[in-house]
Every structure is written in C-alpha cells, then in structure tokens.
C-alpha cells in the first residue's frame, strides 16, 4: 500500500481525534485500510532501524520520537467460569512529522490509536472497540511506567503490568506478572523484514505473563486467569511494498515453552525469506528461527460478512523443536471491523496427529481483505 493511503489514514485519524475525543468509543471509520499499509514507505526525515543497537529497560518501554510508528501489544489466553476467554489490547502511535512541534500545549506530535477486544469462547462473540486521540494535553502517551489513551491505560507494577480499560459494553481489569526475561527478537532486537534500508524494526517480547483479574461482558464481571504475551516494536518503513500481509502466531504451550513465528507474504502469497520466529524454553532461553526452520500450512478457510476468505485453521511445524501443531480458533468470527482490517483471534493448540491439547495462543492475519 502506497504512502498516499497512509497519509489519508493519518488525516482521518486526526479529524476523528479532534472532533470526537470526548466520546467513549468511535464508530467504524470511513477510511478502511490493510494493516500492512501503515508500515510501508515513510518520509525520509523519519529515523530508520538499520542495524542492531543495545536495548535498555525500562527506558525502551517508553515512546521513541523520530520513528514513524510504534506499538505496545498485549494478547492473552484466559479461563473464566464459563470457559475460555481471549483478550487483546494494543496502543499504536503514528508520528505526524519528524520535525519540531510548535510551542503549544495543543500541538500534537502523533496520532494514537487503541484497540481493545475480548473473545468470548463460550458465547462465541467477539467484542471490539477502537479509540483515537492526539498526544496533546496528555490525551495519550507512553512513559516507562505508564502507557495510555485517555482512561484506557497500562500501569507498571512491581513484577509486570496492570491493564484497565472500559469500552462500555465490555471491560478488562487484569494484572500480568512477567515470568520470563525479555526476548530480543531477530539479531539482539533488530528484526529485519525486507531487503531495503529501514525494512526492520526494534522488536522485543515478554512471552509469558501470569495473568489474573476480571473481564466484564455486558453487565456481568467474570474472574479470569491464564497467560498473556507482550510485543513491542518501533520503526519506519518496516515493510517493503512487495509485501501484501503476514500471518503471526504467538503460542504458549503447556510444557512451558512459547513459540512465535510470522510468515510475511508477497502479493502472490509466497513467503518472504525474512519470515522468522523464536522458540522460548521454559527457563527463558530463546532459539531463533529462520524461514527454513518452520512451516505454516493453511488447513481451513472462513468467509467473513464482506466475502473475504481467511485461513483460520493451520498446521504449524518446527522440526528442530519437535513441534507439529494444529492451531484452530475458539470461533471463526474474530475479524476486526474498524478502521484497519485484520483478523486477530484466540486459538487452541493441539497435537497435529493425536489431537491432544497442547496449549493456547493468538493468531494475527493481515492482507486477506483487499
């Protein structure tokens, strides 16, 4: 997707934030874009990720001025009294201009977007809400110990984070304790995603967060417990125009291991050689994977209400880790239907041959709704 579409989106986000920031939830936006379009060509004035650099914590939990985009991304697989529940909370930052901003409390350096979703496995219902804000007058931001968009916020705790967000017809209030060290994806956090200079991001993860708290669906609160996952990335022009989308798996296995693999796809559906992943041992030791180390094969497709087909059931194999997995959704209809079109869903993980349950996780897909 070309730069002009990214600019259109940013204009739409700015108008939405300026006119509607007082509301608790925005309605679906008239601009509908693929997620991959947000990560392609950026103006030359923005900084690029071009090689490994040391990451520092907690400093790198805060925002990184000078880069075009950035996100703080939680997904989680939980169990409630009525059955399995998944959740997603993502805070996105889209910089408007790499140069200095006017000396005014109302001046904005970026547009922020937040996505909140709950997948109710028992009721097979996908709750979703989207918000926008400018970063002026403290409406949104990210510091080392707090990430927020208005009253949706993540606060650092002694051993992890606490997420609180209310979308009206559903809400989450969760404590997440980090059980393993941060995983620096790629080469010490340098995650290359294409051949051109800047086709990369800084990328680190907390792959297992012991999670408990409560989730409200309608007017009823449910106690929940399970595991969550945090991904952090930032950069500019991360994806080449040759890419159409991706399939990203974050799976937490009952034997204590965590698996992340992503397949970047070109416009013919072929995997990019920059696809990658990692297996994280129970003690936190990572084993990084290249495209040759894993395979992802579509097994079943689902057609959404607009007629787009999504591969919702997969076989994921990592021979060197003795993993051959069937990954299937709690239910099919977990497609985002707001400004950015993508599928983000809670998944079951089973042995590909025996069908024995092996874990839970999340799948994100983009580029199927052209």
Task: Note down, in words, how this protein is organized.
The chain is mainly beta and 370 residues long. The protein has one domain (3-51, 59-365): AttH-like domain (AttH-like fold). Helices cover 5% and strands 52% of the residues. It contains one helix and 24 strands. It has one helix spanning 3-20, and strands at 33-34, 69-80, 83-95, 110-120, 125-134, 140-143, 146-149, 152-156, 160-166, 170-178, 183-184, 190-192, 200-217, 220-235, 243-253, 258-266, 276-280, 286-290, 295-303, 309-318, 323-329, 340-341, 343-351, 357-365. Strands 2, 3, 4, 5, 6, 7, 8, 9, 10, 11, 12, 13 and 14 form a 13-stranded antiparallel beta sheet that branches. A nine-stranded antiparallel beta sheet has the order 18-17-16-15-24-23-21-20-19, with no helix packed on it. The protein has a two-stranded parallel ribbon with strand order 1-22. It is globular, with a radius of gyration of 19 Å.
Q: State the share of residues found in helices, binned by percent.
A: under 10%
CATH class category name: Mainly Beta
Structural class: mainly beta
Number of helical segments with 4 or more residues = 1
Order of helices and strands: HEEEEEEEEEEEEEEEEEEEEEEEE
**What integer value in Å does the Rg equal?**
19 Å
Question: Taking all residues together, what is the mean pLDDT?
Answer: 88
- Tally of extended strands? 24
CATH superfamily: AttH-like domain
Write down the CATH topology: AttH-like fold
Task: Give the overall shape, derived from the CA principal axes.
Answer: globular
